Amino acid sequence: MIIKKSLEKWVLLSPALVVLGLVTLVPFVQTLWLSFTDTRITAITKPISWIGLENYIYALTDPDFIEALGRTMYFTLTSVGAEGILGVGVALLLNQKFPGRNILRVLIILPWAVPTIVNAVMWRLIYHPEYGALNSMLWQMGIITEYQSWLGDPDRALNMIIFADVWKNFPLVAYIALAALQTVPADLLQASRIEGAGPWRRFRTITLPWIFGPLLVVLILRTIEAFRVFDIVYVMTRGGPSDSTKTASFFVYQEYFSYLRSGSGASYAVLLAAISAVLITIYYIGARRQVQG
Amino acid sequence: MKNTTLQTFGLIALSVLLAAFTLAPLVWLVIMSVSSASELTAKPLIWWPSEIDLSRYGDLLNIQSGSGERFLMALRNSLMTALTATLLALIVAVPAAFAFSRRGASLLLLFGFLATIMMPPITYVLPLYDIFGSVGLLNSSTALAIVYCAMLLPFATWLMKSNFDAIPAELDQASMVEGASTFYTLRRVVLPLALPAIAATFMLSFLAAWDEFFYALIFTSDLTAKTLPVAIADFTAGRVTDYGVIAAVGVLASLPPAIVAMCFQRFIVSGLAAGSVKG
Amino acid sequence: MIKNKKLLLPVSALALALMTSAAAADTKLNALFMSQAAYSEEDVKAMVTTFEENNSGITVELEFVPYEALHDKIITSAAAGDSGYDVVLYDVVWPAEFAEGGFLTDLTSRVPKNVGNKIFDGAWTTVTYNDRIYGMPWILDTKYLFFNRELLAQAGIETPPTTWAEVMEQSRILKDKGVVEYPLVWSWSQSEAMICDYTTLVAANGGHFFKDGKPAFDQGGARAAIDYMVTSLNDGLTNPASTEYFEEDVRRVFSNGEAAFAMNWTYMNALVNDPTESKVAGKVGVMPAPGVEGISTASAVNGSMGLGIPSNSPHQDEAWALISYLTSKNVQENYAKLSLPVWKDSYSVASVTNGQEELVAAASKAIAVMSPRPVVPAYTEVSNILQKHLHSILLGQESTDDALADAAKRVSRIR
């Protein structure tokens, strides 16, 4: 019976194992192997040689890659941070009782439903230096006296992309936070109120710890997504101006399909994967400590 | 406790702000799609069109016109790919989730599943591209559906597992004791109870597949398999002088996911919440 | 019975026709074009429709992508075997890379021997690498200087500029007199379009990208070219939004009458003179990009493109038939409004010159001086490095010296 059960477990798991094995594990191992070779993308067969750590040494001494990594980190932390704060704020608002609350709860799912590419295209139009709604609006309101270049200014472009990303993704955080908020026991809050805690202290000592778990899950999810950011950049700026929005995934894509160096590209990809793993682990451990401590 | 009038007023003011922040870009996208080309290149902008121009929608929905063909084919490909991938993912994820929830499959393995989606797609893309190339599946919806299935699978398994966990184990144990097979128990006892979770998983997966761009960009090259996100990226970077067309494409491409999200919001939110609270 | 017999003939004929067409319709060609500059999508579709009518049994599926995506699409479809492309449009800067990587079929033996002299040398460069020919030139293009006669007249300028220095002087007059806020507009986004404008200026100043295989863009004429760009921006003569513009943006700004001078490809000539597309129709002059006193009298970048057959195409014969048709003299002369033919004789044919005498005259001068961008297999990377650093100079992120030194260092690191 026990043997049968354990066998059955593997039967149930096998389709998933096959799919994930073939589509993720095998390619991952191949990428790992590629990263130690000088393979190039060609349409003819060319000899491949094993070059050890050469690709990695090149990658880690490539200032452009280091810059792209820094940019990606910045993008990830800023946009996930903003989504977290905005999301929780919106959830707190939607958890209050006021007229129109239910309509608002339904409406704010809309940005999240807009496909990423459409979101990118939409904001690109809004940010257009001459015919964009943002310039026109700010100018008519008297906030700016001259039309601005939003995506053409290297000091600004990445932040403008982050804004677009936050607009699309805060609803997800808000929904999770709201669902968690609804489970906060009222008597706990009441007890704290009786002890004389103000709203901020109640939020910090009771509400936030209570919703922290679910919030962490969704923020990790967003971190994973933000760290691989490609599509929104591809559409909005293609890495410009002056490479100021070229993120790590974009960088690897270019190494593969524009420069055709698959071996070297693979080493960048492996480094990205490693950083991604480290990032998530730190996040997880840090968060656990905060919950417990 | 009741809110004071002042508090209520403050809440309403905040919610109006929130609604404006959320809706303004979308409303403007719709307005652009029905404004004339000259109004869209006025300085400063003309915020309300003098005449509603629906011709772009007519073009996009007409298979005979050039842009219509591109749009409708991409729409078809997107629907096909996303639906196939979602169905496949569910068929594979449900038994796996059951194994994790009821048959004591190691949670470490579940983390292994989840780890596969934590890796950036760029780590898989090149070998996959070679494999699909060697079996002649590049530029086909099949290849995309397979990749998307793997992409959706870990999350779907996780969601389903946490929802199975919420179903009392006595129910299926009782069924097993009566001599029913695991398959029967899963189909007749557990799945009916997990229907809302399945619906939520289905919709979340569908939305994720609908949204995917990176693999589609690399694995497809023409109308036979190109999905909407790639088609839109092409639409907007070429020789387009009329921003209204781009806006109209954006509106049409957002409609299916927006409708799904609005109509089934409760499912989606509860499914997600269950996943994140339990997971 | 008789009735039936009468029916039999047409029915069987129809059946036969259906069978043969089904058998011959086996060949479907996938062709990749771009949706930017040169021939419009409508033109390409019209050409292909005629081709299909003349070649029953071949159908052509057209795919249009932005220029920015063209290179990567050709690469990523290379492994797609039968479902890849059969005909691709490619840029003059890629044959070295595509030939080295085996992406394109060597078509040297298919190209008729007698056409060699009839097509411009600059066009041949587009499809040739190491003396092998990888297709047929199709778009013979360079960037011209367009000017708005009305705005020049308003500023009291009687003759259009003959040197780049004069372009600057006249722009200053136009600006000072308040005729137009930003007299010049270019496509200086971080893209190949910027490199094309830059190459034109480098050529005018007698500069080089490389000398003896070493980067030379930090000295001489190349240095003068970037200085020129920077000055025009700093003095407010160039529209500052140029640094995020592509060709289509340039066309729109110029068509709105918001610029007196614009650099753009051939296709803009027809479109800025089309009243439905432009507010300045009929007021536009076109000339070759000018030169620099004592160095050159005109300048031009070779922006030509060719049609080739990817090596994975299973329909090489049919693909060649399509290429031969599209690049034939007749077809090119019939569609000469957005892109001028590659054939030398065409430039005296009425259907080509009619209504665009000024453009054809400019072309005759420009084609003679067309400068290449560097012919190296790693061109895409060289260009990307230059794009980044030139852009950071234009945006004031880095000093010219630092940026060019960085670019040279980066180029020497290419593997």
UniProtKB/TrEMBL annotation, chain A:
Transmembrane stretches, by residue range?
A: 12-33, 73-94, 106-127, 172-191, 203-224, 266-286
Q: Cross-referenced Pfam families, in alphabetical order? A: BPD_transp_1
From which organism does this entry originate? Answer: Marinomonas maritima
Q: Which family does it belong to?
A: Belongs to the binding-protein-dependent transport system permease family.
Which keywords does UniProt give here?
Cell membrane, Membrane, Transmembrane, Transmembrane helix, Transport
> What subcellular locations does the record give?
Cell membrane
Q: What is this protein called?
A: Sugar ABC transporter permease
What's the protein's topology in the membrane? Multi-pass membrane protein
Q: Which PROSITE patterns match?
A: ABC_TM1
Q: InterPro entries, per this entry?
A: MetI-like, MetI-like_sf
Task: Cite the SUPFAM superfamilies for this sequence.
Answer: MetI-like
Which residue intervals define the domain ABC transmembrane type-1 in the entry? Answer: 69-283
PANTHER family noted in UniProt: BLR7065 PROTEIN (PTHR43005), INTEGRAL MEMBRANE SUGAR TRANSPORT PROTEIN (PTHR43005:SF2)
TrEMBL record, chain B:
Instruction: Kindly list the places in or outside the cell where this protein is found, as annotated in its UniProt entry.
Output: Cell membrane
- InterPro entries on file: BP-dep_ABC_trans_perm (IPR050901), MetI-like (IPR000515), MetI-like_sf (IPR035906)
Q: What is the lineage of its organism?
A: Bacteria, Pseudomonadati, Pseudomonadota, Gammaproteobacteria, Oceanospirillales
Which key words are in the record? Cell membrane, Membrane, Sugar transport, Transmembrane, Transmembrane helix, Transport
- Identification of the protein by name: Maltose/maltodextrin transport system permease protein MalG
Q: What is the topology of this protein in the membrane according to its UniProt annotation?
A: Multi-pass membrane protein
User: Where exactly are the transmembrane stretches of this chain?
Assistant: 79-100, 107-129, 141-160, 189-210, 243-264
Q: Look up and give the organism this protein is from.
A: Marinomonas maritima
Q: Does the record bear ATP-binding in its keywords?
A: no
Whether Amino-acid biosynthesis counts among this entry's keywords is: no
Functional description taken from the UniProt entry: Part of the ABC transporter complex MalEFGK involved in maltose/maltodextrin import. Probably responsible for the translocation of the substrate across the membrane.
The domain of life for this entry's organism is: Bacteria
Q: Which CDD domains match?
A: TM_PBP2 (cd06261)
In terms of one coarse class, where is the protein primarily found?
Answer: membrane
Q: Which family does it belong to?
A: Belongs to the binding-protein-dependent transport system permease family. MalFG subfamily.
Q: Where is the ABC transmembrane type-1 domain?
A: 75-264
From TrEMBL, chain C:
Q: What is its main location?
A: periplasm
**Signal peptide start and end residues:** 1-24
Q: Mind listing the UniProt keywords for this protein, alphabetically?
A: Signal, Transport
Q: Quote the protein name from its UniProt record.
A: Extracellular solute-binding protein
Which InterPro entries did the record assign? Bact_solute-bd_prot1, SBP
Which Gene3D superfamilies does the protein's record reference?
Periplasmic binding protein-like II
Where is the protein found, in the record's own terms? Periplasm
Known Pfam families for this protein? SBP_bac_1
